[in-house]
Amino acid sequence: MPPVAAAQVSGGAEGRYVTVERRDDGVAVVRLDRPKMNALSTTLLAQLAGVVGELADDLPGAVVLWGGPRIFAAGADVSEFGGPESAVEVAGHFRAVGDALGALPRVVIAAVNGYALGGGCELALACDLRVAGDDARFGLPEIQLGIIPGGGGTQRLPRLVGAARAKDLILTGRHVRADEALAMGLADRVVPRADVLTAATELAASLAGGALAAQALAKRAVDDGLDRDLPAALDVETDAFVAAFATEDARTGIDSFLADGPGKARFVGR
What we know:
By secondary structure, the chain is of the alpha/beta class. The protein has helices at residues 42-57, 84-103, 119-125, 153-161, 163-172, 178-184, 196-208, 212-225, 230-244, 248-260, and strands at 3-9, 18-23, 27-32, 62-66, 108-112, 115-117, 129-133, 137-139, 175-177, 189-191.
């Protein structure tokens, strides 16, 4: 389905590296476009954080983050690496983007073609779901530079795949092919490389037409609960469960189920 509107976000002297297409199915496609490898410079990350902030102010139904048909992102811009002061700056930009994606009350899907390495892998990890092409390669090779992941990799990856598998990837720096990424839970779906964007946007569109308020509550409950012990996490779920019943979509969904059975409700997103 073609977009009906497009908003482009300009950066500074280095140019524009992030664009947004808002489609008439409720999906916003955020495109990374920094030749040749989508290296994640601080300028690109600042632009991306700005885009996510604009989406938060004018929410779409769902978001797809895509690096183009050839590569998702090869990693942080190593030319910006210096001493500890530059490390603080780089890590701060990654933290800002990851926090913004996590706070967005919409599902964010990474559409991964080709390499998602280092900071690129960490950016994909900051999304809620990952649709990967059969050409995708994931990895955290920072150890090969004598450093460690600084964009969330040591924390988000073990929460997704478990501590031992995360240590395997982080300590060896090895790349993971799409089929292995799917088996360990690093990727959620694998499709032919030519179909990545289509598969991701179709999934996003199906979510954009759903109960958006409940999706936001569910996303927050999962993410907030991960940082708590089980009793406290169950309290988070109970609070979100109760809040869901205050939405218009809950009344619509329950009434539709009682009248016509499951799967027929038409939600309004409130």
